[in-house]
Amino acid sequence: MNPKVDKKSALDFLSFVDASPTPFHAVQSAKELLTKAGFEEIKERDSWASTCKPGGKYYLTRNYTTLVAFAIGKEWKPGNPISMLGAHTDSPVLRVKPVSNKRGEGYLQVGVETYGGGIWHTWFDRDLGVAGRAMVRTADGTIAQKLVKIDRPILRIPTLAIHLDRQETFSFNKETQLFPIAGLIEAELNRTGGSSGSKANEESKDSGAEKKDFAPFKTITERHHPYFVELIASEAGVKPADVMDFEMILFDTQKAAIGGLLEEFIFSPRLDNLNSSFCATIGLINSVADKSALDNDETIRLVALFDHEEIGSRTAQGADSNALPAIIRRLSVLPSSSFGANEDLSTAYEQTLSTSFLLSADMAHAVHPNYSAKYESDHRPEINKGPVIKINANVRYATNSPGIVLLHEVARKAADDGGEGVPLQLFVVRNDSSCGSTIGPMLSASLGTRTLDLGNPQLSMHSIRETGGTYDVGYSIKLYSSFFQNYSELHKKIIVD
């Protein structure tokens, strides 16, 4: 279907991003889509030899912020290729500090720290909610995670009136002037009957176990405002005293929307990079929607959504970890449906890497009409003109010409099922400009696998509110689905040793 006619993909993305204010929630949203499409959850800690079969569809998570999903072709044999699509679940945000209980001039404030390279001035004067993961003690004594989403404005970072500081350029101290206000001390005292404590503190004091147990550090209702803990506990469905710890992220409560005179824009938080995460997940799902889709496929189709790209990826759940190499190693030796005793598995991993391909999907820079001089004159991506292939001579992006040729064929073949193919754009930064990077170079280096960097064009990257194209969502989904459907055939025709 022509994405210029169909806005459904963009509307589905709005629902996805609104439901996913944190990487925890993004993984949960992706899990729900995959489960509905018939994918089965597996665990890293389990053996896969008897579980993962040709024709099967599976997914797993790590830290509940990274997700890998894959579908195994029925003609799969050990050492065969894997078509891979990588994206990331995190965005620049403000995170609640481990000790966030702050007060000043009669206000209750919440201490936050910056995560990633955000455009932090865009966080001022926004209606902020809080979401994340709470670790809670359950009735049977175990400690489990609960997702939390306080989807109403409870925090705000107010700007200083221009009358008090007529600076031409808005500047501020991120440590002392980026703390949101959460309420008034007087109102909190009235709520608790003039006490500096609260219901949460009282529960903690009245608990005999709490009196006897050694506390390595201050209680959670001392480290954070008691009512803040009460809200988190309520959302998690537990008592405040059962909240052991939490990881909370601030988010803009304004919903994502279709905008523009002709509804050609998406105005949304976290386009970078939930837009790519959504398109990758749906692309994989669409590629196996037909019951016979995997019948003649000798490859594995895989999507990896990593955490921590915005801070360098060098974490246990980042792209620069053992996550993807370990999974590929296990997949490369999965037996075929007609496994023979004489099959040699000793080099299956290396064979798989040498014939596989990775698309690194991360958002790209659309040309800005007010700052056009910042763009190289012959490489100015436009919104709603299709995905952007990103190229850099210093390999800040992993793209090279064999990859460009492959994607050209994938985009052209997207038209084989009817309708039009997928238009593509090319982007390089100016020689006098710095260049960002992606998970592409680090994964191509660690795996030795051919890689290409691409993404949908957008404006205001790393702002709390970004702008993308309504129709680019459909273009990317169509491209990614074609990649998975056609890689088994195409990889044999583009030979570079």
TrEMBL record:
GO terms for biological process: proteolysis. Residues 192-213 are annotated as: Disordered. Its EC number is 3.4.11.21. Keywords: Aminopeptidase, Hydrolase, Metal-binding, Metalloprotease, Protease, Zinc. Pfam families: Peptidase_M18. Its cofactor is Zn(2+). One of its GO terms (molecular function) is zinc ion binding. Coiled coil: none annotated. InterPro entries: Peptidase_M18 (IPR001948), Peptidase_M18_dom2 (IPR023358). It is an enzyme of class 3 (hydrolase). Residues 200-213 have a biased composition (Basic and acidic residues). It catalyses: Release of an N-terminal aspartate or glutamate from a peptide, with a preference for aspartate. One of its GO terms (cellular component) is fungal-type vacuole. SUPFAM superfamilies: Aminopeptidase/glucanase lid domain, Zn-dependent exopeptidases. Belongs to the peptidase M18 family. PANTHER family: ASPARTYL AMINOPEPTIDASE. This is aspartyl aminopeptidase. It comes from Aspergillus sclerotialis. The lineage of its organism: Eukaryota, Fungi, Dikarya, Ascomycota, Pezizomycotina.
